[in-house]
Structures are given as C-alpha cells and as structure tokens.
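Reopening: structure tokens for the S-adenosyl-L-homocysteine complex, inputs below.
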Amino acid sequence: MKANLTGVGMTSLRTRARMIERLRQQGIRNESVLTAMNDVPRHVFVAEALAHRAYEDTPLPIGCKQTISSPYIVARMIDILLEGRSSLGRTLEVGAGCGYQAAVLGRLTREIYSVERIARLLEKARTNLAALPDSRHVRLRHADGSLGLPALAPFDSIIAAAATANIPQSLCDQLAPDGILVLPVGDSEQYLYKIRRTAQKFVEEKLDAVRFVPLLTGLEK
Ligand code: SAH
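Re-run output (same inputs, fresh job):
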C-alpha cells in the first residue's frame, strides 16, 4: 500500500501544525528546524496502530526494543547542531531506527549518512524513507556507529540517537574543523552533550537531562 503522506484525522496536517506550535512553546526557535519538522510526516514512520499518536510529544516503540525519540528531542538536538551555523553540512546520524530523524536531517542537508546496527530496523528505515520523495538522498548503512563511519569522515555534524557511557573518541575524531557532535551521555543519569571541534581542541558542553536507549556494539539481524 502506498503510504498516506498527508494523513487524516489524528495524522492530518492540522495535527502536525499543532505539534510545531508546541515545539515553539517548548523553546525551539530555529525556523529551519521547525519547517523541517513540519515537512516530515511522522505518522509514516510508526506502526499503523500507533499512527494516531505520532504527533504527540512522546517516544513511541518501533520494534526490536527500540523507540523513535519524541518530536521535542529530535528538534532540540538538531537545534543544538545548528546553533550559530546556517547549515549542517556533511552529516552522520548514529542510530537510524525507523528513519524519522534521518528524514528531518535530510531536509536540512543534501549530504547525510545514517547507520543502524539492527538490520531489521534498517530495512524499515529504508522503506519509510523511500516513501518520501524528499528523503531519497539519505544514505543508510548497516554498521556499528560506535565506530563512526571512518571511510566517509570528516563530518560537519554528528548526532547519536543512543546513549554512551562516555563521549566516544572515535566520533570526536571524525569531526571536521568547527564540526559539532551532539549525543546523550551517561548510564542511570543521562545528559545531552555538545562537542565542538576547534583548531586546537574539543570544547564540551553539558546540556539537558534526557532518557535514551543505550548505544550497543556489534551488529544484529
Ligand atoms: N533516530 C531514530 C531513533 C532510534 S532509537 C528514529 O528517528 O527512529 C536509537 C537507535 O540506535 C536504535 O535503532 C538502535 O538500534 C540504534 N543503535 C544503538 N547502538 C547503535 C550502534 N552502535 N550503531 C548504530 N546504531 C545503533
């Protein structure tokens, strides 16, 4: 069946517009982020039985014990990545999941790579992204993103959708000069971190308290 991109009822454009209003109230000011969030139909990325909840501000299960992050978290992380810059440039996402965040990132850059360690989810992401005409440039890989994507580095932006105990040096090393990495760090208590590469060093900022699934190593079917 062809995906219903515009949606009806709880998946309608009006419901999506309300999500954007809520994001504004929650403090997301970057108009390009808000436009990208408005352009991507989140209901296409979740199971049909959950589609009516797609525009609520909540994470939702996507199978394989994983979740799609809440709209606010997706917007907030991309907002942080874009702070003080006009473009994301060459971008790496670690943890494609169902492909939703990759689709939003894809509205903001032409060069986007997203890696996922669970093959079944990667296939879901592939199908979901193929249904959207403006997302076909998103490149997906079945890979362990804890190692980054060295063959395609350096990246101007790196974003991880799963939490690590410590900031991974491999991801920092794959940042281009002035590149920015945003990711959740911690075990029982997690925080978003923003790491910027300057000419001489990496500058770390600890930001919001968050709750993410853990970044795991190795591949899964
Ligand atoms: N951005 C996703 C969120 C998915 S949740 C979305 O929009 O749906 C985080 C994802 O990270 C999960 O799918 C999980 O399998 C994946 N993940 C965890 N560790 C990983 C690793 N080392 N490499 C690649 N993906 C990983």
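The pocket of S-adenosyl-L-homocysteine is lined by residues 62, 66-69, 94-95, 97-98, 100-101, 115-118, 121, 144-146, 161-162, 213, 215-217 (CB under 6 Å). The chain has a mean pLDDT of 96. Marking as resolved unless the reporter disagrees.
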